[in-house]
Amino acid sequence: MSASRVAITGIGVIAPGANDAPAFWDLISAGKTSTRNITAFDASQFRSRIAAEIDFDPYASGLTAQEVRRMDRSAQLAVVAARESIADSGLDMNLLDPYRVGVTVGTAVGATTSLDEEFRVVSDDGSQDFFNHRYAIPNLFNHMIPSSIAAEVAWTVGAQGPVAVVSNGCTSGIDSVGHALDILREGRADVMIAGATDAPISPITVACFDAIKATSTYNDSPAQASRPFDASRNGFVLGEGSAIFVLEPLDRAVARGAKVYAEISGYGSRSNAFHMTGLRPDGNELAVAISAALDMARVDGRDVDYVNAHGSGTKQNDRHETAAVKKTLGSTAYETPVSSIKSMIGHSLGAIGSIEIAASVLAMKHNIVPPTANLHDPDPECDLDYVPNTAREVEINTVLTVGSGFGGFQSAMVLTTPGKK
Hints:
Peroxisomal Thiolase, Chain A, domain 1
């Protein structure tokens, strides 16, 4: 049976500075930053040597020794977040038809951390021309295929319905939830466990972004390095994390007395077919995605209470996004609070879209807009209300959250309070 309205009833988050959803909200609403010098490996030879790392103990988070051995860090984060979201939802998974439960997980770089580590092992730190497979771990193949992450989450929750990985770069976290929304609306599942994960803080990932000069070089002030919309910004700060949600038809959630965080009212995704890393300054391609999401939600741009920005901290993205918000919200764009949580927890690539959905939903719950940290000298071309440094109390019933990714991906989602949009 198809569902015309879909609700979020469970949230699980693990992010820099926060190992569950309540701690995550406390961090971002307080405007605290979790960016620091990289500790995961020796980054002394890199151009950018800062990141937003998670102090994550998989054993303390409930994973077994076998799970830790088998799973890449990105999968570990997803499984821990999934367990939190299910507990938060109040669902008894044993009472559900497993063939009507599905999973969608977004990721940009999959098991890059494990692949990087294992390459070092089988090549003897790159000194061997031929790799010695005898030194590889038995689960190495699982690290090569990102679908293994969705499989791990499916095994954790007992899902035997539609299961998929969505990998659209930095919009993966929005797109995976959008895919789950479609599945529920089409009636192919009764419950979807959806979200995203990435753990990209590894030498190969840092080297890739160094090569295109996309990341910040404020290595001497890591806590202030992520500066979205600030005139002094010079790139994003790499991060890691996961956010996983329980999605179900709104009427089903209400009938079982579930806590309904928000309704996913609209979703839109477009590609600019323009440039791998470049963006047109007019913001048109993102504006089209935003308009599609607003149209699906039947929401006028003037009724948006808060924009959770992509706000990566690169020169072109922040200007592109500012232009897109102006195009779609019109004159009210200047009155609508906009903020970027990447200023506090960095950019976790494919995971960040879902983490920003979590931030948006919690902002609605508390009627508080989290701030944009480190914003002291606004770029004159970024002239909206970016809620600098301090959170703000605002009644929030409609949130627009957006994402932009290398390759030209542009996505947007509209979240509403049921009955109040």
